[in-house]
Amino acid sequence: MLLIIGAVIVVASVLGGYVLHGGNLAVLWQPTEVLIIGGAAVGSFIIANPMHTVKEVGQGVVRLLTGSPYNKSYYMDLLSLLYEIFDKSRKQGVMAIEEDIDNPESSQIFTRYPAVMKSKHLLDFITDYLRIISTGNMAAHELEGMMENEIESRQHELEEPSHAVNKIADALPGLGIVAAVLGIVITMNYMSEGPEKIGLSVAAALVGTFLGIWMGYGFVGPTAIALEHSAKYELKAYDCVKSAVVATVSGQAPQMAIEFGRKALPTDKRPGFQELNDHVRSK
């Protein structure tokens, strides 16, 4: 929603100011300029990035339009899931959770949290380290180091889409100049025509520069920043799991372990202590 609101403000401010200054909107309608700039941008984006990054950019933009799943409700479900697993392990022994972590799709605990089940990478992260805990005798600091290494690797993966889009944003002003130069080349054919014809052709060429700068700094660049923010919220879910798992390995009770996880969440999405406690009890 914010992406749409921001885009509307950008369009209204730029075009509205142009019209109020006496500009003619019809002059800005240059579909061939859009084709040159947009087509070159898309082509260079495909050349520069592997297919999985291209797909992730598309998925990321859809999430920006529909809303990120990593909200307060999601984090509360994640912490409630961890609490149930830790509580079962503490009461019935570590071996009791083996079936849950080996087959989360059929687990009575995991299936109560469909939002978490949709996050395949995070689900694998949780089950992998619960499996390590149940099969090994790893010290808390060793487990924490291993988890931090994987989170760092995941961070690079999550930041790839924003970096890819940001590079296109940086390239768009240059592509706008390319379109403008081609427009000037066409204008050279009209040198024998009257000044009105030449003026219209030069104006059309300059629209290319305008569109490249406007698209780069008004839309694509901010979208790259929004994708980066979205990735950070997902990464916080991994930090939450890490803090809670390390706490439970260190001997903390389930309620205290998820408190460690809660404190790792961003303040604008973090549930309150009593709010989380009530949510856990309701589950």
Automatic annotation (TrEMBL):
DNA-binding keyword on record: no
Keywords in alphabetical order: Cell membrane, Flagellar rotation, Membrane, Protein transport, Transmembrane, Transmembrane helix, Transport
Entry-linked InterPro entries: Flagellar_motor_stator_MotA, MotA-like, MotA_ExbB_proton_chnl, MotA_N
Domain of life the protein comes from: Bacteria
Main location: membrane
Membrane topology annotation: Multi-pass membrane protein
Pfam annotation, one family: MotA_ExbB
Domain Motility protein A N-terminal, residue spans: 4-93
Keyword Transmembrane helix: yes
Domain MotA/TolQ/ExbB proton channel: 138-231
Biological process (GO), any one: protein transport
Transmembrane residue ranges: 26-48, 171-192, 198-220
Record GO cellular component, one term: plasma membrane
Location relative to the cell: Cell membrane; Membrane
Record family assignment: Belongs to the exbB/tolQ family.
NCBIfam families recorded: MotA1
PANTHER family: CHEMOTAXIS PROTEIN MOTA, MOTILITY PROTEIN A
Name of the protein described by the UniProt record: Chemotaxis protein MotA
Organism phylogeny: Bacteria, Pseudomonadati, Pseudomonadota, Gammaproteobacteria, Pseudomonadales
